[in-house]
Amino acid sequence: MCRAHAAVRGFVSEMVARPARERDLIIDMEAGLEHLSRGTGKDVTRLLAAIEPYYRSMETARRVAVLARELGIHNVSAVANKLRDDGDREAVREFCRAHDLELIAEIPYDAGLLEAERAGSTPLDYNPASPAMVEVQRLADRLVGEGSSH
Amino acid sequence: MRLAIAGKGGTGKTTISGSLARMLARSGRDVLAIDADTNPNLAIILGVAPQQAQQLLNLPLDLLERQTDADGTVRSVFTADPEALIEAYGVTGPDGVRLMVMGAVGHGGKG
Q1: Which residues of chain B does A125 touch, with a Cβ-Cβ cutoff of 8 Å?
Q2: E strand or H helix at A12, and its extent?
Q3: Among partner residues B3, B24, B94, which is closest to A48 by beta-carbon distance?
Q4: Chain B 6-35, residues with CB within 8 Å of chain A CB atoms
Q5: Which residues in B lie closer than 8 A to residue A135 (C-beta atoms)?
Q6: Sequence-ordered list of residues with C-beta below 8 angstroms from that of A108, at least 6 positions apart, any chain
Q7: Which of A29, A98, A126, A138 is the most buried (most CB within 10 A)?
Q8: Beta-carbon separation of A124 and B22 below 8 A
Q9: How near does any CA of chain B get to the CA of A89, in Å?
């Protein structure tokens, strides 16, 4: 492992394992989960695997879930994104059922996200009431609700 | 809560991460977002201004120190102060989300 990688891994592990105060941590990471070390997986409240309704994406999520469980992350959930129709919904539901993955959000395909990018804005600033943002908000509310019950 | 979000490139995981981070912050929570992707663009989704994003620094390399145990085992120990690192290397974006970018650290990455 190169020094830069070790430094990042050390920092992320430290943040996950020893949160200094009441603070939420959101880590956007690659599918290999290289930034988590074995000992710190248990301190990750939840891993969300983002999936699109096509095979290679879902297969990547399945591998992410296996890796996550090996690292000791207990809660692994799938968040489906860019769903265009009922066929897409059924495909992700079926895949999650088959691989014992909890599907906690179904975010619809949303052309507004591309418009936001073109306008030099963020999805949330451009249109917080867009279909995708409404579903992400629902996910946020759910995660907060779960956190307060523990 | 401590959330990790992962997936294949293009799945929208960064859109989900960044939007979630801001929504949590809007509900009054203290949020630290960490971009650990080798193609970092969480700053864009968070709405961090480009000139502010340019101030983001990659973490220094000397955060780990090699220590030798009594039995001769050599371990790498994290010696830096995380809060000081967040202060020095992060930026604060809209809704008060604090962002840190880990930088391109994959094989062949800088460093």
Answers
A1: 47, 94
A2: helix A3-17
A3: B3
A4: 6-8, 10-24, 27, 29-35
A5: none
A6: A82, A83, A84, A131, A132, A135
A7: A29
A8: yes
A9: 15
| Distance (Å, whole) CA A26 – CA B89 | 16
A143·B1 Cβ contact <8 A: yes
Residue A106 bridge partners (DSSP): A80
Size of interface A-B (CB pairs under 8 A): 231
The two tokens of residue B28 are 């009054």
Could you read off the pLDDT of A92-122 as tens digits, one per residue?
999 999 999 999 999 999 999 999 999 999 9
The SS3 assignment for B65 reads: strand
Burial A11-23 (b: 16+ CB within 10 A, else e): bbbbbbbebeeee
Q: How far apart (Å, rounded) are the C-alpha atoms in residues B3 and B13?
A: 12
Structure ipTM over 0.90, yes or no? yes
Per-residue pLDDT band for B104 (boundaries 50, 70, 90) equals: low
Cβ–Cβ of A27/B103 closer than 8 Å?
Answer: no
CB half-sphere exposure, A109, CA atoms < 13 A: 12
Residue with tokens 């991460």, as numbered in its chain: B17
Q: How far apart are CA A11 and CA B78, in angstroms?
A: 7
Q: B13 vs A50: CB contact, 8 Å cut-off?
A: yes
Q: Determine which helix (DSSP H) or strand (DSSP E) holds A102, and give its type and residue range.
A: strand A102-108
Query: What is the number of residues in chain A?
Result: 150
Residue B74's Cβ-count burial label (10 Å; 0-12, 13-18, 19+) is exposed
Integer Cα distance of B74 and B57 in angstroms: 29
The average pLDDT across B68-91 equals: 87
CA dihedral A10, A12, A13, A14 (to 10 degrees): 80
